[in-house]
Amino acid sequence: MADFDLMRSLSQTAQTKIVLLVMDGLGGIPVESGGPTELEAALRPNLNRLAAEGCLGQMNPVGYGITPGSGPGHLALFGYDPLKFDIGRGVLEAFGIGVHVGSDDVAARGNFCTVDPSGKITDRRAGRIATDASKLLVDKLAKIKLPGIEIEVKPVKEHRFVIVMRGMGLSSCLTETDPQKTGVPPLPVKAIEPKAQRTADLFNEWIAQAGKILADDHPANMLTLRGFSGDPRLPQFNEIYKVKSACVAVYPMYRGVAKLVGMQGIAFEGDTPEDEFRAAAKIWKDYDFLFIHIKATDSRGEDGDFAAKVKVIEKVDAALPTLLASKPDVLLVTGDHSTPAKLKSHSWHPVPLLLWAPETVRPDTETAFGERMCARGGLGTFPTAELMPLALAHANRLMKYGA
Fold it and tell me: What are the backbone angles phi and psi of residue 372, rounded to the nearest 5°?
């Protein structure tokens, strides 16, 4: 991980601009032996040009063989050790939509799902129902009352929502209810330690009442809960690295993780890569560090749709001239984890990385951006949490260490 005390002592202000472009779930694997990954199959002339002018490598978000969630993957990108700063997804979703979560509150990220008559999950995301449909369901769930606590339920996007419980003596030491597969029923909430038993009982009672309310709705006739957490009060990104940072993201969860570390969320219209890059251009003069997040690569990977994930990458590539027109000094293109369409899930595979910094980079011999090329790249393979010092150094934002 980035040593925060060392970064505080070495970081310095400068006129340079850093862009961290994260294509969520970017990494993939071939569908057939010897075939291309999604990134390698995409038409990506702009990315390939940057690769030829820059340097490639690959990163492990948590550790070899460890499959990361989105929260750990992004915290690692920002330099936070994901094993030390274990943040539940509930607080990330809540922060992303402006819902307050105190250190004694318990937030969870909810998914509407589809279950069959026997109660077994047939679709973990209820067909990715529209956000408007989700809002109607959340309005129903908001009527559930439990003694001694306050409950806030808010829609996020598509099939996702947030629930926050507030009251005395609550604990987030709870197990999740999503079994992460179909063909089985949702799991009960269990207390990881004795002090959390009352909280587990409250969530299980809420889920039971929610199940009755949703029973006649289709496809969203049940729900699962993940990422129980409170506000972890993280060290702040801007203070550590001496930058003024902002986040451009469509999905609330990623605005949430950015807000949690102290980045400014940027409101904008639209949801395409071009829209995001235009939003970045509008605020270019006001910030030193921009985190730009592309969600659809991950979604299409989880859907198992190889061709659709390829198209998302191609849309990002086609829109890149808009971003490059602002002339970043350092551009990092990577992902928070791999989501191979073949596996339909996050995976443990290293994440491709492209570093482009015209004034300071030492180019390697690779001329295209893909997993095989990154495995041979000059940056090698390293922990994701070491990326921020590399970015700052290439932006001339780190002083010399020692005499």
Answer: -65, -40
Query: How far apart are alpha carbons 379 and 215 in whole angstroms?
Result: 52
CA of residue 45 relative to chain centroid, distance: 26
> Whole-angstrom Cα distance, residue 393 to residue 18?
11
Q: Using CA atoms, how far apart are residues 20 and 391, in angstroms rounded to an integer?
A: 9
What is the structure's pLDDT at 1?
67
Q: Is residue 401 part of a domain?
A: no
Question: Can you name the residues that pair with 383 across neighbouring β-strands?
Answer: 60
pLDDT score of 203 more than 90? yes
Q: Which domain holds residue 250?
A: 4-85+234-394
- CATH code, domain with 360: 3.40.720.10
pLDDT tops 80 at residue 344? yes
Give mean pLDDT, residues 5-32: 97
Separation in Å, CA 207 to CA 70, 154, 211, 353, 381 = 24, 15, 6, 41, 43
Cβ atoms of 96 and 70 within 8 Å: the answer is no
Structure tokens at 119: 């109660």
What's the CA dihedral at 296, 316, 253, 127 to 10 degrees?
-10
Number of structural domains found in the chain: 2
User: Per-residue pLDDT tens for 155-183?
Assistant: 998 999 999 999 999 999 999 999 999 99
221 and 364: one domain? no
Residue 240 forms part of a structural domain: yes
* % of residues, the chain, pLDDT over 90: 91
Residues facing 166 on adjacent strands: 150
Q: Could you tell me the pTM of the whole model?
A: 0.84
Of the candidate ranges 37-46, 88-97, 127-136, 360-369, the one whose mean pLDDT is the lowest: 88-97
Residue 111 pairs with which residues in a beta bridge?
A: 160, 224
Beta bridge partners of 354: 56, 333
Per-residue pLDDT band at 95 (split at 50, 70, 90):
confident
Q: Which of 130, 126, 89 is nearest to 253 (CA)?
A: 89
Tell me which residue has tokens 């102290």.
262
Q: Considering 229, 251, 283, which residue would you say is the last residue of a domain?
A: 229
CB 265 within 8 A of CB 255: yes
Assess whether 102 and 150 both reside in one domain. yes
Say how many Å lie between the first and final Cα of the chain, rounded. 24
The reply to whether 272 falls in a domain is yes
The values of phi and psi at residue 62, to 5°, are: -120, -55
